Amino acid sequence: MSNMMKALVKAKAEPGIWMEEVPVPEIGPNDVLIKIKKTAICGTDVH
């Protein structure tokens, strides 16, 4: 598995979100890591 992943990032207090390559988070002994193949974001949730 790669140690990087794509993520939608809200890094600034301005309109928009950005797709960035970020490190895959480390999981703990009681965690699971799930690979998402498809998703959607409602435009009203971004405001």
The radius of gyration is 13 Å
Terminal CA distance reads 34 Å
Please indicate the percent range of residues in DSSP E strands (runs of 2 or more).
25-35%
Element pattern in H and E = EE
Query: So how many helices?
Result: 0
Largest sheet: 2 strands, antiparallel
Structural class: mainly beta
Number of E strands: 2
What does the overall shape look like?
extended
What is the oligomeric state here? Answer: single chain
Major sheet: arrangement of strands: 1-2
The overall number of domains is 1
What would you note in describing this structure?
The structure is a single chain. The protein is mostly beta strands and 47 residues long. The chain has one domain. Strands 1-2 form a two-stranded antiparallel ribbon. The chain is extended, with a radius of gyration of 13 Å. It starts with a strand and ends in a 24-residue tail after the last strand. The model has no long low-confidence stretch (mean pLDDT 87).
Task: Give the tags.
2 strands, two-stranded antiparallel ribbon, 47 residues, single chain, mainly beta
Please write out the topology.
Layout: E1 4-9, E2 18-23
Antiparallel strand pairs: 1-2
Question: What's a quick, concise take on this entry?
Answer:
The protein is an all-beta fold and 47 residues long. It has strands at residues 4-9, 18-23.
